[in-house]
Amino acid sequence: MEKKRTAFAGTWYPASADACKTEIQTFLTEKSGPATGDFAAGIVPHAGWVYSGSIACRTIASLVPSGEASGNTPVDTIVLFGAHMHNQSEPFVMTQGAIETPLGDIAVDADLVEALADNISIRRRSPSKFVDENTLELQYPFIKYFFPDAKIVVCGVAPSFFAPIIGTMAVDTANTLKRQIRVIGSTDMTHYGTDFGFTPAGTGKNAVEWVKTKNDADAIEAMKSMDDKAIVAQGLNHHNMCCPGAAAATAAAAKKMGATRAHLLDYATSFDKTRADSFVGYTGLLYGRD
User: Fold this and answer.
1) pLDDT tens for residues 243-264?
2) Rounded CA gap, 157 and 119, in Å?
3) Which of 130, 153, 257, 286 has the greatest CB tally within 10 Å of its CB?
4) By the 8 A CB rule, do 89 and 158 touch?
């Protein structure tokens, strides 16, 4: 079976199973831990685990169906949206094979991918031709830990009108194949500072406060509203999401799955850990059903 090999293990996150499990178990005890409720989808960050792993871990853990222990979940497939893309980029999906993680391989749901790709225009990529993307790979160990028997669909989504179509079609296709799914969208928030060529509020504490209370807050409100057009517009016009296409696809998928509310699990910035003039925002957000 052809595999997508790890590219960031040992640098952005641990390379061994034991080390991954230790960090995950620590993350689960931080702040209020995972949220409780009936959640269909979530938005996660994708920096190195030292910066945003706790938020991503607790968000993905919150997607495990209530009452189900890790390792005994009825979820068939995780649909993961991500990738750094321009609005003119062509969306892509991994076609078959498996994804390598320190905790074991995740099988690609080839039947779901094929049915989805037959219905929409999307580039098919084999594991060996699949791009190395931290937006996607940083989530694989969490997915394997919390959904050890689930398969996966991994899709790069551009920030365009097509993003919500991909999200909606993924849910429609899963329903046709009678798959129970959870959807995850991967995006970091504002990349601020001279390292990123973005300094509209100067430097120092005032800049951090502007990012937290204005720029990232506006993006979070768009995501909470599940307004896919507003999500894409925020990311493209205000530089407050690096993967707004993934976020828009996730919001559209969540609505299609019956989500009626959003829950902000957590928010932080890399400035909280490393007080530098250049920093990045991170959020964990869940879409749930009443």
Assistant:
1) 999 999 999 999 999 999 999 9
2) 16
3) 286
4) yes
Cα angle 54, 218, 286; round to 5: 40
Report pTM. Answer: 0.96
Vertex 15 angle, CA 152 and 99, to 5°: 20
| Residue with token string 């959870």 | 182
Q: Say how many CA atoms lie within 13 Å of 57 toward its Cβ.
A: 24
Domain count, the chain: 1
Instruction: Supply the CATH number for residue 59's domain.
Output: 3.40.830.10
Structural domain harbouring 207: 3-288
Strands 279-288 and 261-269, by their bridges, are antiparallel
